[in-house]
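FAQ

Q: What does a record look like?
A: Structure on top, sequence underneath. For example:
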């Protein structure tokens, strides 16, 4: 069959015969016909054929009469089966030697472990209403060989043996992996996760660098410890941050080999001990024992529910530190809901209660562990920060290998899924009421006087000026510690919206030294963390107390209608709700058909609930 006919068949998905009828068919070449092929057969041949027919007819009669048909068929079947099995065994024995010789140079240049599989995590669904996720969607992964061929799909992959550094493949198994385009779905146009190529946990651990990364120019970084002034200066800041002057701020961007900068905790020599953001001595001692990897999060103001990490390997459970920082209100809620016991643990999280918080704003307090983890965990090498509303669903070793070790980066953060310009981000924050508009305008004008311009292609290879700062992955080396210190100082001086100040600090440091930030795709971030709803929204949808204390047998009464509309209610629905609340139920006119369904009180109640859910 020609290539053209194959193309026609593939393109139309029609039958092959239809295309042959409508196309030119080449004649079939055969052997030449002898000249005497049209001559009649002789009588001898005819008599021989008749004798054969008579013999077969007689044989069939004898076989039927003596009932030997079935045994004969069984013997023939056995003979055929034995013949086929012997042929198959010969075919299987032959390619084994050739495959062994051909696959070895393809995967490894020398004799070593078998070919290494990689795990590609696929798209997964959006979070459920309760904020919990279905584990099955994270098992929807495929295993690829180094050349990219599919080995298995939607199956649990066996863990490979421990791979030592001497047996690492010469070429990274994920080198040729590319993020495919999102599936065509017109009904879903918002952000979504995309596939990410992760190595198995054992192989990811083998790729962990043995030595710290090189910090360009900056080799030694110390932190200012002083008593802040009694009367705060008019330039912004806080006692916790030390009120650095504009000169001190400008000097901190002049990268030198040895530097000393403001970095929070200025009122003491030991972060967490009488410095503001105070931590109990027992917790501080335990945190000092975290020498490798720390995964940290925080919930202040009882704003979120603790999300348990999933798909965590036994190696990570044993060697990785999981710390959750909470305040007194969140601690009280955890104890009342029987989630926190005497061990100060909630699942994998080691809960640390913070006292003497430096700020009145709970979100600003969250910036302390988010940006200053290197000060709290002074002995940790790597850290992964996730916001309290996020659920970690990929092993920390795999995340670090994918976003730091594989790219030789020391800090990684995802881009914003929609905005890449600081000016657009500032306007979006003002429109959403995320912060005081005058403070946002003041910060933007300050940066404009320093040279901030809208993002353009001239900044390439920098792809964005706006991060999605809910996840920060970094190695604790002097240059990254300086970056997060200076980023925190901007948050302390100006607004708490850290997306606005990120690019200013990054660009000032990059202008001094050869260093950059790995800003990966936001869809990749959504692959390893899942965003849940805030606690107040979850309580409206499904109260957590109902999961702890079973409801009584009788159904609860319906929620009463109130004259006070919700502050987040839709304005076009509130007047109808008020009218129904003021009217006695017995005076509501009876409607029929569609009018009865659209004007009933039950329908309005469901509309309000659905409206509030969609707003979040």
């Amino acid at each position: 069959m020609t290539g053209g006919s194959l193309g026609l068949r593939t393109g139309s998905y029609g039958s092959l015969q239809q295309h042959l009828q409508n196309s030119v068919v080449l004649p079939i070449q055969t052997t030449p016909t002898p000249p005497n092929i049209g001559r009649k057969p002789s009588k001898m041949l005819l008599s021989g054929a008749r004798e054969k027919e008579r013999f077969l007819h007689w044989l069939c009669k004898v076989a039927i009469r003596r009932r030997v048909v079935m045994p004969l068929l069984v013997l023939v079947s056995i003979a055929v089966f034995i013949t086929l099995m012997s042929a198959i065994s010969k075919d299987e024995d032959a390619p084994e030697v050739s495959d062994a010789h051909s696959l070895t140079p393809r995967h490894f240049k020398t004799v070593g472990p078998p070919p290494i599989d990689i795990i590609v995590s696929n798209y997964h669904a959006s979070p459920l209403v309760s904020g919990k996720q279905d584990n099955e969607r994270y098992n929807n992964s495929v295993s690829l060989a180094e050349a990219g061929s599919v080995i298995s799909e939607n199956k649990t992959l066996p863990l490979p043996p421990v791979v030592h550094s001497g047996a690492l493949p010469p070429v990274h198994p994920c080198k040729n992996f590319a993020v495919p385009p999102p599936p065509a779905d017109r009904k879903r146009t918002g952000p979504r996760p995309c596939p990410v190529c992760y190595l198995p946990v054992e192989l990811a651990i083998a790729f962990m660098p043995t030595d710290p990364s090189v910090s360009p120019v900056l080799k030694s970084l110390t932190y200012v410890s002083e008593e802040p002034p009694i009367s705060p200066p008019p330039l912004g800041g806080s006692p916790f941050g030390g009120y650095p002057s504009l000169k001190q701020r400008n000097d901190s961007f002049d990268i030198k080999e040895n530097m000393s900068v403001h970095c929070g905790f200025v009122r003491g020599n030991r972060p967490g001990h009488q410095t503001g953001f105070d931590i109990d001595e027992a917790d501080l001692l335990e945190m000092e024992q975290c020498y490798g990897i720390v995964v940290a999060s925080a919930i202040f103001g009882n704003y979120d529910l603790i999300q348990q990490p999933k798909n965590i390997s036994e190696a990570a459970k044993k060697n990785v530190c999981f710390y959750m920082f909470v305040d007194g209100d969140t601690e009280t809620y955890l104890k009342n809901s029987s989630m926190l016991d005497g061990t100060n643990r909630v699942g994998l999280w080691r809960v640390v209660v913070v006292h003497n918080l430096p700020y009145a704003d709970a979100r600003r307090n969250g910036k302390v562990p988010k940006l200053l983890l290197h000060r709290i965990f002074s002995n940790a090498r790597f850290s992964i920060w996730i916001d309290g509303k996020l659920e970690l669903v990929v092993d920390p070793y795999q995340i670090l290998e994918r976003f730091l070790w594989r790219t030789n980066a020391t800090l990684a953060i995802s881009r914003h899924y929609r905005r890449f310009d600081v000016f657009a981000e500032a306007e979006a924050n003002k429109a959403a009421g995320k912060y005081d508009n005058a403070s946002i305008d003041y910060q933007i004008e300050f940066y404009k006087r320093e040279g901030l311009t809208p993002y353009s292609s001239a900044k390439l290879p920098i792809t964005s000026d706006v991060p999605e700062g809910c996840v920060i992955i970094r190695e604790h080396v002097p240059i990254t510690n300086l970056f997060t210190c200076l980023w925190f100082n901007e948050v302390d001086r100006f607004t708490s919206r850290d997306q606005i100040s990120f690019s200013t600090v990054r660009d000032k440091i990059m202008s001094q030294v050869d260093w950059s930030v790995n800003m990966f795709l936001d869809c990749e971030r959504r692959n390893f963390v899942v965003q849940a709803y805030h606690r107040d929204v979850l309580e409206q949808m499904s109260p957590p107390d109902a999961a702890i204390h079973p409801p009584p047998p009788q159904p609860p009464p319906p929620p009463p209608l109130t004259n006070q509309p919700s502050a987040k209610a839709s304005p076009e629905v509130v007047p109808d709700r008020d009218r129904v609340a003021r009217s006695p139920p017995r005076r509501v006119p009876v409607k029929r058909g569609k009018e009865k369904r659209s004007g009933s009180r039950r329908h309005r109640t469901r509309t309000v609930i659905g409206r509030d859910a969609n707003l979040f």
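Q: Is there anything notable about this one?
A: The two ends are 59 Å apart (CA to CA).
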